[in-house]
Amino acid sequence: MSGLLIPIVAIICTIGLPVLVISIIVYKNVQTKHQEKLAMIEKGMILQEPEKRTNKYTALRNGLLLVGLAVGAMIGLGISETWLRDSFAGDFMIAIMTILFGGIAFLAYFFMIRSIQKQDNNPEI
């Protein structure tokens, strides 16, 4: 029984503890904002919702990210099968290349949007 209890507790703590901490942080953040708004209303201040800027290039960002992740996975798989066939590092190479090319895709998105904004003379994304 105790041999089975240790993995169960480890899994619960590994998953449950971060979820609990994040839930507490989000709850405290929402509660603080609510109390702040109530205090402003009691003082007679007019509440204005902040402007929400929408990003009209989300499809471009998501497309570049997915292409970058796929290319990274393919290159990582090729490297691991070619040079690191019987090595433990081969598994990590797939993850490393996927993350690397996902980051490169985000950088490409940033530079593409910056050049579009320069052409339009529009500072907002």
Describe the structure in brief.
By secondary structure, the protein is mostly helical. It has helices at 2-42, 58-82, 89-120.
Folded structure, characterized:
The protein has 125 residues and is mainly alpha-helical. It has 3 helices and no strands. It has helices at 2-42, 58-82, 89-120. Helix 2 (58-82) runs antiparallel to helix 3. The N and C termini lie far apart (57 Å).
Helix amount: over 70%
Number of helices: 3
Coarse structural class:
mainly alpha
Using the alpha-carbon principal axes, give the shape: flat
Give the oligomeric state: single chain
Any chance you could write out the topology, listing elements then pairs?
Blueprint lengths: L1 H41 L15 H25 L6 H32 L5
Helix pairs in contact: 2-3
Keywords:
about 120 residues
